[in-house]
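Memo subject: From amino acid sequence to discrete backbone structure tokens
Action wanted: Derive the backbone structure tokens from the amino acid sequence.
How to read it: Take the token row as a discrete description of the fold.
Attached in line: The record itself begins immediately under this heading.
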Amino acid sequence: MQMLKTRLPDWVQDWLEVIVPGAQILLILFVAWALQRTLRRLVRRASVRYQLPDELLVPINGLIRWVIIASALLLVLERMGVSATVLWTAFTGFATVGAVAFFAAWSVLSNLFCALLIFTVRPYRIGDYIEVLDTAEKPGAKGRVVDINLLYTTLEDHGAAHTAAAHSGAWLQIPNSLIFQRVVRRFQVVPPPPAPPAPAADVPNAAAAPSVAAPPPVVPGPFNTP
């Protein structure tokens, strides 16, 4: 490197402290841009192969983009002369805030992670009839899967579909994290409609009612002469 500096003109040597870090920063930005495009292309191919919905691609691409941007920013600041101690302090501060936010939004993040598992493992699909049970012996929420998003699995209530409540649109929204905490029964065919409630017993008519016993005849006595 010293031999190269001696062969360069004087005005170039004066600008080497700016040219070299600038070239390194441009190289870092170019590598980050190429890496982001490559990873997004891989995610798109995986989504086509595994039939992942578009709702799942948006957070994945966003996570990839922000991780690459944060890494590139740290490298650029280091090339600009920012102390590594300052960068580490800032990183630990952001990590602490991120950990607190992670635990605060754990319920939402668990639903997002379970949605990823549902889209990849495919325990059920849209159009399937499932029943979410606490145990295998007790009945639970039963219906046809009409929508799967990042937070909820929406069922068309199977009981309301065969009653007058079907006209009012009865839906069951079950959190995705709850799906992995319960027993899920998946029907291969459309389950039979629920049994109607037993009709009330008919009130017996007067003819069938038992006759009331007649009062005993009055026996004449010394104090009740007829």
